[in-house]
Amino acid sequence: MSRFMSKAYARLDAYTPGEQPQNLSSFVKLNTNESPFPPSPMALACLTEAAGRQLRLYSDPTGRALRERLAKTYGVAMENVTLGNGSDDLLNFAFMAYGDAGMAYADISYGFNAVFADKLGVKSEIVPLKADLTIDPADYCGLGMSILIDNPNAPTGEALSRKAVERVIAGNPDNMVIVDEAYVDFGAESCVPLTKKYDNLLVIQTFSKSRALAGARLGFAIGCKDVIADMELLRNSTNPYNINRLTLSIGEAALCDPAYLEQCTQTIMENRAYTAEALKGMGFSMTNSLANFLFVKHSEIGGLELYQKLKEKGVLVRHFEKERIREYNRITIGNRQQMDVLLGRITEIINERRACACGREA
Ligand SMILES: *Cc1c(COP(=O)(O)O)cnc(C)c1O
pLDDT (tens digit, 9 = 90+) per residue, 239-250? Predict the structure, then answer.
């Protein structure tokens, strides 16, 4: 760091993204919840046009065409939608917009939440998950500050019903409730319909996971008109061109292919059930994940050890050092072949350990 760096920011503890290896082909990559499938062929088809002559022009700062398509898709009006350069962009704006009295979120939740709070000087109220790593909605009543719920939660994958989230929203009429629905397409209930009923709700979603567009960086948020105006004020005061021309076109085209989304998410859910069953048979326990990952721990092998041994064998999963969850690993659900490689490597690890233990006893 240079000696000129602002004191306000020099102390920042930045978010640590999952490893993104350069030599992609040497790993089965199950560590950052990307899709194993390519983006919709319709999304890819629009690339040549958008990537051509029009790239000399700035992107539409209002993102009108994409917002209109999103509004249609989600049954709201364009004024109820804003766009982010990934949903991380929108989370940043939400912390800026609604952090004055503090922000309450779970001790085990998306790692970026704490980073934004710290950077923006927003007081965090850390609400512990229950012993079984689920959220108790009752913990979020009467806190007198904004509330952020990842639903499904990360990295547990556990989801609250829409009814349960609605009780939090209705129980906090004078506080903002932000629901991060990055994984909602894999089987949970979305709170988007509630944005018509409540003026204290902002729902954030992303194209990164279910729509296989993590590299395009596209997120969106839905809320009542005034809440979206708050977000637009911050967006336009930061970078009105936060969504580039290529991404605007790809996003719009992806929304025109709902059958592809359905097919991809169905396959992921089937592979999730398949992998969960197999892992349970090998001595793993896990949370009830409704996301495109499983959060698992083994009865004998420690979390860090499993992460390291899998990496040696060419399979990348995500391990977190946080005390409460250090015996766990988060495993992204890939295609069936990737899951079979994972299961094969884990079987080897278990067998090698047993052979080793026998050797010691003999
Ligand atoms: C992946 C993820 C995001 C970030 O998504 P981007 O749109 O790629 O920025 C946000 N929240 C949660 C809980 C996530 O897991």
Answer: 999 999 999 999
